[in-house]
Structures are given as structure tokens and as C-alpha cells.
Design a protein that fits this description.
The complex is a heterodimer of chains A (310) and B (100). By secondary structure, chain A is of the alpha/beta class. Chain A is built from 13 helices and 8 strands. In chain A, the strands form 2 sheets. Chain A has a 4-stranded parallel β-sheet, sandwiched between helices. A 4-stranded parallel β-sheet of chain A has the order 6-5-7-8. Chain B is mainly alpha-helical. The chains are: A alpha/beta (310), B mainly alpha (100). At the A-B interface, helix 1, helix 9 and helix 11 of A face helix 5 and helix 6 of B.
Chain lengths: 310, 100
């Protein structure tokens, strides 16, 4: 296990200076929208919070963290803060496989297609789409989180944004629960699967749905994706621990202890594998961590978008 | 030997809701916690109750094992919100590190 102090100061420093936990310039991370023709004005703004875009970088960086965890080299992480942020971020970006970036960009493109097919009046403004800072909150850096949250909400308020469409549970929680509490900013927040509204019976498959903790417990939204899939003729095979009692994928521990994260992920995967059906996740952190444990896992948006294509 | 600080629960107030004293140490949180690790989070909550601030600081690293998954909070029979208490302790420790 890494010294939490070293990891927190590294992440807080990156978020403070570059507005994301990796120090990578935003224009390099947020490229999913380039090939899509989306309006920049409308009723609700699509707010990705950059979480799906981060997954390939999380996977790459935690691979190195896992390599050095509990070795004599572990302590060197405290010196990472001395490397200029954008320089280390650029380095990470260069070593992260392009294929993986493309894959996770594809998830966001599917979400945009689902919204279009559902006739949702939405728009996208990459300049206003920022990381929510939720990792700082989870790590206990309250001061850093509040500062960052005010930066993010300040931009949204200035642009007159009132309605937001989210794509992942962590950003949804930050926008719905934390921002009103700590950044004096209330938005009308809906997650994309609450807006699915197109007819198709083309699912014809069984899946194992892994509910993330934040949808299952904190936001009480687990029933919505299940209903969406059922309406599309995709049957969700029951899992032992689901809904409010869903089990964690282990992802939140990956920056401090990749070993612990994998241990918890392996246990969850064992539970999910009992059904014998393909695992479907709706959280980028769960998706990444279950993959690390060896899961054959798809994102919810991919399954929904496949029903559009048939 | 641990030095006890009877005002520690008050010292924690800026960092979390004041729910630690509601806990009656039944251990449900520990039983359901996916960490399956010693007496986490019950032990930490007990430290707050008795004011064992030094013990918390000595064992601070353990706090970051918490996944913030919320199972303990969901099942706590006293609605003591153990997950939020652990998060509050993280905030307290971070503030303490930065002060020192």
C-alpha cells in the first residue's frame, strides 16, 4: 500500500495545476466528440466529467503502481510531484495505447447516438466539460475538492447552464449531491439512461448487470437501466448482490493500493461470473477494474447502442 | 498506552456529521465491509468515541483502504453513517498532515 499522503498530494497538485488528476492537457484527453456533429446550444448540456476518457490512463498508471507497490521503490512516488505536471502528463499520454483511448471514446459516442435516437434536445461544449474533482472528495482532500468544484461550477453558471446530462455515477453524484452542498450550485441533473426513449425489441440476449455502488446505493438508480434493457428485449440475469446491496468492484482503492483493488475486484467478478452471461457495467471505474480482474465486460451504452443498429 | 482526548468528537465536528456517538459497536459495518480487514471500520469509530486521537493518527493509513462503497452506512442499525465517519476521518487526517 502506498502512503496515502504521497498519492493525495500528487493528485491534488495535478488537479490544482491542470484540472485533471493526471496532468494531461484536456485537449489531448477529450477528443471523443471530434467526429460527431453535435450542436453547441440546446436544452441540456452533455457533461461527461472526463471519467470515461481517463480509463486508459488509469489502467496504464495503476499498472506501474501495482508493479512497485510494497517494494523499496514505492516511496519514490513522493518525488513525482517535482516533475512538471504537464511533462509527466504528456509522458503518460504517450505510453497509453491509442486503441484503448479509441475504445473508451467509442462509449461516449454511443451515448451521444442514444440521446440523438431518443430525440433529446442536448448540446455539447467541450470547453465546459471538466473533471468533477470527485476523487479529491473521496480521498479526503476537502479543501482541494471545494476549490475545484467552484472552478467547474463557476464556468457552468457563467455560461448559463441549468440542465446537465451525465454519463457515469461518480460525476452524477458530484453534480447532484456534492456541488449543491459544497459549491453552492444546483443543476437539473439526469443521467443518459434516464432519457432513453426509442422503440426496439432487438436485444435478444441475456446479460449480467453489475450495479455500481453510486447508482445502487447513493443515487438509488439501479432499476432504471434494468428497465431500459428489459424494454429492449435484453434480459438481466439476477445477481446475488445487486441494487442497494451491490458489491464494490474495488476500483476506488486503485490509486492507493492496486493489490487491494484487484483483491476486491476478483471477489466481485466471482459473484458475477456465476450467471455465465456477459457482464455489463455502467461505470468507467467498474469497467476498468473488472477488466483488470479478467472480466469480459461491456458498457451499458454499447449494449443499448447495438439495439439501435439492428 | 493511549492518551485519550475527551473533546475529540468535538474536534471532529468541522470534518463530519456528529454521528460517531450513536454507534453501539454492534459490528454490522465490519461484517459487511468488502475489505474483510481486522475490525474496520468499527475500530476507528470506537477510537473517536473514546477520544483516542493518537491511535487514529498512528493508524491513519488504514482509512484509505475504505472504498467508500456505502454498504456499512446502508446496514447500520443506528444510522450512525460509518462511511461518512471514515470519510470525515480522512479529511481530519489530511488537514492534520497539512498543518504539521
Amino acid at each position: 500500500m502506498y502512503n496515502p499522503k504521497d498519492i493525495i498530494e500528487l493528485i491534488a497538485g495535478n488537479v490544482g495545476k491542470t484540472r485533471n488528476p493526471f496532468g494531461i492537457p484536456k485537449f489531448m484527453i477529450n477528443r471523443w466528440h471530434k467526429d460527431l456533429d453535435m450542436p453547441d446550444k440546446g436544452d441540456a448540456m452533455l457533461f461527461t466529467g472526463l471519467m470515461y476518457q481517463f480509463v486508459p490512463y488509469i489502467e496504464k498508471s495503476t499498472k506501474y503502481l501495482a508493479k512497485f507497490e510494497d517494494t523499496f521503490l514505492e516511496g519514490l512516488i513522493r518525488f513525482a510531484g517535482y516533475v512538471p505536471r504537464y511533462l509527466s502528463g504528456l509522458g503518460l499520454s504517450v505510453i497509453t495505447p491509442g486503441g484503448e483511448k479509441k475504445k473508451f471514446n467509442g462509449i461516449l459516442q454511443d451515448i451521444a447516438k442514444i440521446l440523438m435516437a431518443s430525440n433529446v434536445d442536448f448540446f455539447y461544449r467541450p470547453d465546459l466539460d471538466d473533471y468533477s474533482g470527485v476523487l479529491l472528495y473521496d480521498l479526503g482532500d476537502q479543501e482541494g475538492f471545494v476549490q475545484h468544484a467552484r472552478y467547474v461550477t463557476g464556468k457552468l453558471k457563467e455560461a448559463g447552464i441549468k440542465k446537465l446530462i451525465t454519463v457515469d455515477p461518480h460525476t452524477t453524484y458530484a453534480l447532484k449531491v456534492l456541488f449543491p452542498k459544497y459549491a453552492d450550485a444546483s443543476f437539473d441533473v439526469k443521467t443518459y439512461f434516464q432519457l432513453v426513449d426509442f422503440q426496439s425489441k432487438n436485444g435478444h440476449r441475456h446479460v449480467t448487470l453489475h450495479d455500481p455502488c453510486f447508482y445502487g446505493r447513493y443515487l438509488d438508480l439501479s432499476e432504471v437501466p434494468k428497465k431500459v434493457l428489459t424494454d429492449l428485449n435484453v434480459e438481466c440475469v439476477p445477481v446475488r448482490n445487486a441494487g442497494p446491496f451491490t458489491n464494490c468492484c474495488g476500483g476506488p482503492a486503485e490509486s492507493i493500493s492496486p493489490k487491494l483493488s484487484t483483491e476486491v475486484g476478483d471477489r466481485r467478478l466471482e459473484e458475477l461470473n456465476v450467471t455465465g452471461e456477459k457482464i455489463v457495467s455502467m461505470c468507467p471505474i467498474c469497467l476498468g477494474n473488472l477488466r483488470k480482474s479478467g472480466a469480459d465486460v461491456e458498457d451499458l451504452s454499447t449494449v443499448i447502442a447495438q439495439c439501435l443498429e439492428k | 498506552m493511549a492518551l485519550l482526548n475527551p473533546n475529540f468528537a468535538e474536534e471532529m465536528e468541522p470534518f463530519t456529521e456528529d454521528t460517531a456517538l450513536a454507534c453501539f459497536n454492534c459490528g454490522t459495518c465490519t461484517a459487511i465491509c468488502p475489505l474483510v480487514y481486522e475490525h474496520f471500520p468499527r475500530k476507528m469509530i470506537r477510537y473517536i468515541q473514546i477520544g483516542a486521537k493518537d491511535r487514529i493518527l498512528e493508524n491513519a493509513q488504514e482509512l484509505w483502504r475504505c472504498l467508500h462503497c456505502g454498504l456499512c452506512t446502508l446496514t447500520c442499525p443506528r444510522e450512525a453513517n460509518p462511511g461518512e465517519i471514515i470519510l470525515g476521518l480522512k479529511r481530519f487526517v489530511v488537514a492534520n498532515w497539512r498543518r504539521s
